[in-house]
Give the backbone structure.
Amino acid sequence: VDKETFEAACQKAYRKNVGSINIQGFRKGKAPRKMIEKLYGPEIFYDDAMNECIPEAYEAALAESKLEPVGQPTLGTCDVQDGEFIFTVLVPVTPEVTLKAYKGLEAEKETVRVYAKEVDEEIEKLRSRNARQVTVDRAVENGAEILLDFEGFVDGVAFEGGKGENYPLTIGSGSFIPGFEEQLIGAEAEKEVEVNVTFPEEYHSADLAGKAATFKCTVHEIKVKELPELDDDFAAEVSEFDTLDEYKADIKAKLAERKEKEAKLAKEDQVVEKAVANATMEIPEAMLKTQQNQMVQEFAQRIQAQGLSMEQYFQFTGLTAEKMMEEVKPQAEKRIQTRLVLEAIVKAENIEITDEKFNEEVAKMAEMYKMEADKLIELMGEGEKEQMKADMAVQEAVTFLLENAVEA
């Protein structure tokens, strides 16, 4: 940072701090800068001046060096020499990828078949989704939905967070501590039962981890699913077909189509994994942490959409934020490696997304969102367009690997 810029920052720091500096012979806030610097040294304003200069100088240095950080920078040495402010920043960047074999990779061919049993299973799923919840006057069974009052005790003393009223619970869902739901099977409505469990050793609450607990439980309501009859009327109600046989034939065709897509994706995964395994790279820790955080946030958004907070999820599962970060680490590393290798193949094979291909993809998106393609493009910034083209190029790289693969 040149002398003039750093001097202006020091003057700004002086104006900011002079009001809190007392010097004999001067009213508070009126001491001249030179007098303050003479008494305390010019370094008295350096910290604030540096903080003022660093963001803009850092951004300028990034632009000049054409670097794209993949994580937060780390501030290194800071020094003032002859009025100039000199500082260093350690910046995590995308690692270099060394590609090895990626053409002619072996991929197993998968024969696609649809069995009658699979069609029946799809029908049963649909019956289950269209089932009515009926309140019954019998004991709790696996799969039943109940309304539950519970209160937990450790050594006869109730503990915080261990009480709930009219809590909806599906038996067998695994929502509660292992062993809890199974002990409610056979319970009758409005009759108190005791459930004895042991909290996991790694439970999020250290006060409860590894301890035995007794829950006093009362079931207020028991509901079970009542499935519809499997006949032509059912088929007509849930589909555009008049008979059950026609509906089953349609399900079989759709299952075949889905399996074809899955088989193609499985082949893609095989060749991509082999290309990644053959490549070498060193992923910066900051890049990995960023990806881990993103995956945890994605998970949080998914469960929030289901009405559950991360705090509640941690309480029910016994997980912690730190443990979840560690659990997603292998997957995060795989995501990064895959993306970097595919981007390297894009570069090596000069894969480019033409305007025509880009417009075709935008047209598909516009149709999905039920809007005009031109309007959708107008809503996109240049950064979003470039990111979309980059994603399309990566998918083209996957197609390239598949087209150049050989059957095992």
